[in-house]
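Retro notes - structure team

What went well: the batch runner handled both jobs without manual restarts.
What didn't: labels got mixed up in the shared folder, which is why I'm recording both outputs here explicitly, each with its sequence directly above its tokens.

Job 1
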Amino acid sequence: MDIDSLMAKIDEYLPTDKQGLIKAAYEFAAQAHKGQVRKSGEPYLEHPLQVAMALANLHLDRDTLIAALLHDIPEDCDISLDDIEIKFGSEVAKLVDGVTKLKKLTNRSGQGWRKSRVRAENLRKMLVATVEDLRVIIIKLADRLHNMRTLGALPLSKRRAIAQETLEVYAPLAHRLGMWDVKWQLEDLGLRYLEPQQYRRISRLVAEKREQREKFIVEASQTLRQELDKAGMEAKVFGRPKHIYSIYQKLNKYAAQGKDFGDIHDLFALRVLVDSVSDCYKILGTIHNLWHPMIEEFNDFIANPKDNGYQSLHTTVLCQGTTPLEIQIRTYHMHQIAEHGVAAHWHYKGGGDIDLSFGHKIPWLRDISQLREEFDGEEFLESVKTDIFGDRVFVYTPQGDIKDLPKGATPLDFAFRIHTDLGYGCIGARVNGRLVSLNYILGNGDIVEIIAAKGRKGPSLDWLNPQLNYVKTSHARGKIRQWFNKQERGQSVDEGKELLNRELKRLGISLPSIDKLAHQFKYKHADDFFAALGRGGITLSQISLKLSLDLESPGDTIGISAPRKGSPSSVKVLGVGDLFTRLAGCCHPLPGDEIIGYITQGRGITVHRKDCPNIINEVEKERLIDVSWGDVGQVYPVTIKIDAWDRVGLVRDISAIISEEGVNITGANVNHHDNNVTSLYFALEIKSATHLNKVVSRIYSLWNVINVVREGGSDAK
């Protein structure tokens, strides 16, 4: 592909005065990517060109097209965003920056133990970017689409990982944004690389009976057109084939029912496009007069649009006897929205300011913002996959408003979706006029009425029992937990105070300020800290570790120094034991380390490791004396520093490993950093260097540990 093809497409809708900067962006990208080649062997410039062309097909605005041409430059070409902003403006620079950040996260998503955490953070960043400016994610979807088309150039393991991510994140995201044309391509390509045998099998099955099905669609189309001509109605009627991935899903569903490919009758459907909404309903009546409708398969998404803006009439009729035929009826404008979703909002319309707040007007994107506040990490990922990206059911309020919920949702989920207070006060529900239990599974088309208590009423603890299936959505579960947390707060604060006072007495510690301890646990106020302690969010063992700080450990924290064992009598000086020696605090030597003595003034001999910087840089070499380890029958103090990605239970897991190795913890300290990395310092009593290495190796095996260092020495691994 070349720039002329792109400019020809752009010329179809953008005025000439807006095209010059796009051509300049292409020339800038061509110079930046000069000499670069993709894994597929084609010039790298082909990729941004294809991404821009995909967006031009959607009639996207000028800044979006420029950002598409430049989106790989900051990372791959050592050109700063400032340079891009100077040449193409702040709007383009923001879009490029947004796409670049998403790419960096995606590239990091395969790094061992960090994979699940980064995948969750990747999704979070994408959704946040989507809310703030939809064009960022539209560019990213176009970028992923072209990468999927050239995925065959990558190794098998990478192909599978990228295909899996595409099916789990990108295709559902395109679906929720209403971008049907992008969605089905991503799904088919994802299946092609994740399940190549299934993909080829379905392609072959579809091809074998294509002629028979196409004949059926042609005959049905002709019959409908003739009927519309008789009624004097103008409409465009055409067949709509099912894509490979949807057939794959249907085959899996049919297989569970003991059916096979030959039982699938709706591989093709009809679509009817008209000029006005009133024509949609007139044509619906004509179709139902012509063929017998299957009433349970009718949906009016014109009167009740989906939350991604989709509108259409869906009906299924029995054509040519008993063959089901699905027909969709919509206006031309509705068709544009259905194919391109939110991207249609950005279509260039000849002027006017771009509404950057458009993402905040989409209900499920507003839900994303709420989920972002309520959940962290992988819990956020699972919540989004269930509540936002999962299979949906569409139900109605008694007033006829449509609400979409994840498949498996209950009346309680529906109640909390309407309003939190309605969920709290829910005592019963009617579905289609019939009383049902609160764990009833809602189906498509159900009309749901919630029966609420007249006075104030709270939820039941049973609602949180996963065995009883009262709630499906993370949103409802979170609101129920919030209620109990709020109700129990006063009691939890009192219990927390009592627990802390008891622990302080046990440790023999008095604290001048509780606020400082609360801040270490990331609570702004002492009562928040007490409440968390009272309800079990913080354990006494965590507090003990925090308070049992060796004052020699770095960091501005609260703590006390812990006692150490007496001087190591197992050290021999010139082969003689029982001399006054002490272990150096700078390098903490252990049995098994090569050691040397340093003659101090009035304090006997200090034993150092030979690689201790203080010994290496010692000027008075005459003070050094040979020492050796004698019988090892006691423990020695040593401090280790552990850098790890912060998570719930981190201190507990590390402490458990240390305890299992028979090591006593005499002090601990935890420092939190802004980048979500935590540094933990443990003062231990170790028998030997070999013993320490075993402890360190086991700590290293924890999935989120970054590094373990023996204080006063090098990497302890």
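Job 2
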Amino acid sequence: MKISSLQQARYEYSPKLPGMLRHGISEISVLEGEETQSVADQEKIKELFPNTYGKKEITFQKGKNTSPAKKQVVGVILSGGQAPGGHNVICGLYDALKATNSENELYGFKNGPSGLIDDDYLIFDDAYIDEYRNTGGFDIIGSGRTKLETEEQFAIAAEVCKKHGITAIVIIGGDDSNTNAAVLAEYFAAHDTGVQVIGCPKTIDGDLKNEDIECSFGFDTATKTYSELIGNIERDANSAKKYWHFIKVMGRSASHVALECALETQPNICLVSEEVAAKKMSLSQIADYIADSVEKRAAKGMNFGVAIIPEGVVEFVPEFSKLIAEINELLAGSKADEFNAIETWEEKYAFIEKGLTKESMEVFAILPVGIQQQLFLERDPHGNVQVSLIESEKLFSALVADKLEQRREAGTYKGKFNALHHFFGYEGRCAFPSNFDSDYCYSLGYNAFMLIQYGYNGYLSKISNLSKPANEWVAGGMPITKMMNIERRHGEDKPVIKKALVELDGKPFKYFEAHRGEWAENTCFVYPGAIQYYGPAEVCDITTKTLALEQE
């Protein structure tokens, strides 16, 4: 296999560790803190997790290692969507495990949680691990979205662990995956299996964070990758001076990715889903907001611009959410077959018109035909509209075009409007991790093994003080139950890790809010360029604008 010179150089990069993890395994001790409780619904969470609830937060520090000496056989799982740095979590875990005892073993369960259930694995060695150091992707063992949530699955997992003498499982995933890690940890404790479970916080969406988890891994690299591309488009827009670029970015429910990219590139427009929901903005109001920027810029002879659209924004528009709910109801059960049997779009449109309320039909009617049809095409396993597949970047540019035409007819707008569309998602999920993510992920994995060695179960590997240089980072662990609350899922109350949405009173949004008026009217573009891996620390090791603002 041919490899690039950058890839070869990254294999040889030595990730930086927090100061207290640099002393050598024999000189890492534990400082226990206060007992914890869940962020909400304390009694219910305590009842569901009697063996793992209320445990103490811990911090590692320099001191005599008092953990019992025993052979450790650890299993690791990559769960959910890819995020840059996942390979380094495994490398850090492997290195700490082997540094403690060369007889220790690391099993990699293939293709996500299903690998544990199917007993499909490989055993890592130095040669295999070395091929993946500091690289992007999850191809080291593959990932998957199987949920570990049933008693039957837990019993099989326990048997697989017993078969191989596995003493601990590390689950690398987002909020749902770490919720499942907590449930699995509780099962293992309740059934006295002797198997520990440790989680690691992963998601490019940035919504797995709280007062303890400052950011999830992958967010840094993904947003820098998207920001490079957005900056390139901004420069092209400023050169050609004839296109408005509508750019949708990944992020699903939360707008952290969109906001970070806006802070890095200073586009003319960036929608923030959480603000749309708080202000109960309609599609028409959003289109007017964007059209205002187009009109003001056109009046200055600037018929170009850039708008960033979060992936899930339409779900936060109240009237659109109502429309989606009515469509889901309209096509429930056998009605879906009846609808699918209709041959022409005109006849389908008439069927839709009869089934929707007047208010929802008014919303549906203003949508471009292509978007209307998307709402009735692909559906999820529950028969619901897959909102993430809606091309919202095209939706908003079409609505803006309609608004501008109305203004032209009214004589208030005389500019030109030509829209181009982009979706940045998969481009950022497997990029070469930045130095920050390489260091952070390696530290998370190394730290996860220290939690295992000291006997902790149901904990999340925690690295904090992340806005400072790596030698000032603080390593430790927190019970996953501390992050949990009860939410209604599929008609049932479920314990889940609380998602972190963009806080409208938080420093990142407040900074954006204070500057967006100027960005909307003038050309204030910033061109961040490619991620830098070698050179001055202030260039190569820089954190995201979001983290810097939150921690200042």
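One thing worth noting from job 2: The chain has 22 helices and 15 strands.
We'll revisit the folder naming next retro.
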